[in-house]
Amino acid sequence: MIGVGKAKQYANVLDKPLSRGRQEVSLSAFAFLFSELVQYNQTQVDNIAELERRLEDAGYAVGARVLELLCHREKGNRRETRLLGILSFIHSTVWKVLFGKVADSLEKGTEHEDEYMISEKELLVNRFISVPKDMGAFNCGAFVAGIVRGVLDSAGFPAVVTAHFVPIEGQQRPRTTILIKFAEEVLRREARLG
Amino acid sequence: MAAIYSLFIINKSGGLIFYKDYGSAGRMDTNDSLRLASLWHSMHAISQQLSPIVGCTGIELLQADTFDLHCFQSLTGTKFFVVCEPGTQHMEVLLKVIYELYTDYVLKNPFYEMEMPIRCELFDLNLSQAIQKDRVSLLGR
């Protein structure tokens, strides 16, 4: 994600067209900003669950805005109303705009009907982050989980979204799985729609 | 085969923040490595003052009978140095690579406290890969 396109300067932000194609920012700049975000939130909390929640809330605001923008830019002011539609929208469209690539996989949970998983071998936000041993299973992917929750919630699919490290066999680094657990009402609506 | 004996990273006040040895030669215990790191820090500072050249940045290479010591100092005063077999080539490049890994996997890590000992899994992982690659390329020559 290196290399910044030279954008034309607009005096008024409202004059700027929304569909400006793909713009990329420096990965280093993002990594430092994200690192500061985590460090700041760390000073505001006294336990890890609280830190996770704060990161998720930060992501939620991004998700809500991203949905708004992408529905306008990519889908001609229409948004997905079906479960699989919105999931593949997140897996491909949202991921591509945010991280420059489609997510590695989108799977349905085997044990529960209401669970879906988006997995990423090397999540962009975790690229430079090593979580210390004493923080247990804490994952900075909570921010991305928050983005996913923001998109889903704003699109009318309330869900609980969490980020987890999942070890892969034969690999030193675990992958990150974003676990999505939809609310009951969503599944009931889906069943009714057939 | 040319070999690296050990790698040190010291912060701007001379404290050892990272130490790793490779192979049996020149291995030392924790106290010795701390002592050597601060010794090098002082020698480096004195050499800057003693040098007849204006704007000298300190010792870059120390050659002894049994080892070479290559040092790289970043703009912020963090020093990286490797002790290696006499006559080992391309150590400057390796030090730059290590510096790059430090800026990526240590400085961008929100859980690292500045000037404190480096305990980052990703840094260790990428460092051993870089050293491995360096060994392979040395063997290939």
From TrEMBL, chain A:
Swiss-Prot/TrEMBL keywords: Endoplasmic reticulum, ER-Golgi transport, Golgi apparatus, Transport
A Pfam family recorded for this sequence: TRAPP
Record flagged with keyword Transport: yes
GO biological process, one term: endoplasmic reticulum to Golgi vesicle-mediated transport
Cellular component terms per the entry's GO annotation: endoplasmic reticulum; TRAPPI protein complex; TRAPPII protein complex; TRAPPIII protein complex
Keyword Transport carried by entry: yes
InterPro entries: NO_sig/Golgi_transp_ligand-bd, TRAPP-I_su5, TRAPP_component
Principal localisation: endoplasmic reticulum
Cell location: Endoplasmic reticulum; Golgi apparatus, cis-Golgi network
Family named by the database record: Belongs to the TRAPP small subunits family. BET3 subfamily.
Quaternary structure, from the entry: Part of the multisubunit TRAPP (transport protein particle) complex.
Protein name as it appears in the record: Trafficking protein particle complex subunit
From TrEMBL, chain B:
Primary localization class, coarse: endoplasmic reticulum
GO terms classed as biological process: endoplasmic reticulum to Golgi vesicle-mediated transport
KW NADP (keyword) present: no
UniProtKB keywords: Endoplasmic reticulum, ER-Golgi transport, Golgi apparatus, Transport
Compartments, as annotated in UniProt: Endoplasmic reticulum; Golgi apparatus, cis-Golgi network; Golgi apparatus
Superkingdom of this protein's organism: Eukaryota
Gene Ontology CC: endoplasmic reticulum; Golgi apparatus; TRAPP complex
Matching InterPro entries: Longin-like_dom_sf, TRAPPC
Subunit description: Part of the multisubunit transport protein particle (TRAPP) complex.
Membership in a protein family: Belongs to the TRAPP small subunits family. TRAPPC4 subfamily.
Protein name: Trafficking protein particle complex subunit
Organism: Ananas comosus
Phylogenetic placement of the source organism: Eukaryota, Viridiplantae, Streptophyta, Embryophyta, Tracheophyta
